[in-house]
């Protein structure tokens, strides 16, 4: 739309300008170089200059619009609901300039800390022989999956299930039933509880 | 087992130290089992304390060397981890630095320079 307008104006100005030199002055280019014949007065000269600048500016604006896109008229969003919810905005991830702690905290509840020692009471012995389970005193902050992992790591055995209880003296007892392909008695011998 | 000495530990590499730590922990485990089963006797029971303290020593050495290396790494940098910065006290950390305190108006600076405190003395 822009360029067309400009050419229209150019032609219009050409027409305006005038008849004697009409054919030569009519151009489609943005910059009008008009030759005024010798017989023009100052008045006409001023007009042409103004005209020139206006044409130039409209042409430039048109070019800019084409390049940049029309930013002067904004699109209005259509809201079809009466509520306004906060739109999703950009949330950047943290890029800390320095770690807050120089050394990350070490895990205090590792396998050695989880399993304290196995129980060797009579009832524990019975469990080993009859139910294929080992009985351990365990860190009170350990949970069943952790106990399972720890037993696996320390003694190389797979646990079928773990049952826990907290003794009245504040210690946690874990009954670790071993999988059928392990023999609790062998494992107990290996550990040192007999 | 002989006493683990810190001076000997400092010469070791970190993986060696880790390995030693694991060994010590295993030993502690077996000792505790022994305590429960009633084997061993006084000697074994006394060993428990040694092993515990040796584990502590290994951990101390590992931690100290890591911290040292980190301090060297961050030396001269603008942003250090908070535990590598000076501790002092909370209030002192929030005070103005000497440079910040010495900042003056340009006017005051010029005045000081142009009209310093003169001292005169009477010739005897």
Automatic annotation (TrEMBL), chain A:
GO terms for cellular component: ribonucleoprotein complex; ribosome. The keyword Transmembrane helix does not apply. Residues 20-43 have a biased composition (Low complexity). Residues 1-19 have a biased composition (Basic and acidic residues). GO terms for biological process: translation. Belongs to the universal ribosomal protein uL23 family. HAMAP family: Ribosomal_uL23_A. This is Large ribosomal subunit protein uL23 N-terminal domain-containing protein.
UniProtKB/TrEMBL annotation, chain B:
Keywords: Ribonucleoprotein, Ribosomal protein. GO terms for molecular function: mRNA binding; structural constituent of ribosome. The keyword ATP-binding does not apply. Pfam families: Ribosomal_L29. InterPro entries: Ribosomal_uL29, Ribosomal_uL29_CS, Ribosomal_uL29_euk, Ribosomal_uL29_sf. One of its GO terms (cellular component) is cytosolic large ribosomal subunit. PROSITE patterns: RIBOSOMAL_L29. One of its GO terms (biological process) is translation. SUPFAM superfamilies: Ribosomal protein L29 (L29p). PANTHER family: 60S RIBOSOMAL PROTEIN L35 (PTHR45722), LARGE RIBOSOMAL SUBUNIT PROTEIN UL29-RELATED (PTHR45722:SF2). Belongs to the universal ribosomal protein uL29 family. HAMAP family: Ribosomal_uL29. This is Large ribosomal subunit protein uL29. It comes from Rotaria magnacalcarata.
């Amino acid at each position: 739309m822009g360029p067309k307008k400009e050419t229209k104006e150019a032609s219009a100005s050409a027409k305006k300008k005038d008849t004697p030199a009409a054919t030569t002055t009519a151009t489609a280019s943005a910059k009008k170089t008009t030759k005024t014949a010798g017989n023009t007065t100052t008045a006409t000269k001023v007009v042409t200059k103004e005209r020139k600048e206006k044409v130039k500016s409209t042409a430039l604006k048109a070019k800019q619009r084409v390049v940049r896109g029309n930013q002067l008229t904004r699109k209005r969003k259509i809201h079809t609901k009466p509520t306004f919810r906060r739109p999703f905005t950009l949330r950047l991830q943290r890029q800390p300039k320095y770690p807050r702690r120089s050394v990350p905290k070490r895990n205090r509840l590792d396998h050695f800390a989880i399993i304290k020692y196995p129980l060797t009471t009579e009832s524990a012995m019975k469990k080993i022989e009859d139910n294929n389970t080992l009985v351990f005193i365990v860190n009170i902050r350990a949970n069943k999956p952790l106990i399972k992992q720890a037993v696996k790591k320390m003694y190389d055995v797979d646990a079928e299930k773990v049952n826990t209880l907290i003794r009245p003296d504040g210690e946690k007892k874990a009954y670790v039933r071993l999988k059928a392909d392990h023999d609790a008695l062998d494992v107990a011998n290996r550990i040192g509880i007999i | 087992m002989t006493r683990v000495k810190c001076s000997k530990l400092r010469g070791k590499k970190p993986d060696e130290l880790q390995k030693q730590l694991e060994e010590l922990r295993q030993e502690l485990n077996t000792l505790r089992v022994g305590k429960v089963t009633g084997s061993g006797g006084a000697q074994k029971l006394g060993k428990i304390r040694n092993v515990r303290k040796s584990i502590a020593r290994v951990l101390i050495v590992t931690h100290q060397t890591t911290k040292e290396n980190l301090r060297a790494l961050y030396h001269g940098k603008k942003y250090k981890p908070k535990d590598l910065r000076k501790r002092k006290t909370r209030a002192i950390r929030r005070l103005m630095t000497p440079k910040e305190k010495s900042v003056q108006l340009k006017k005051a600076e010029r005045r000081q320079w142009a009209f310093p405190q003169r001292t005169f003395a009477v010739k005897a």
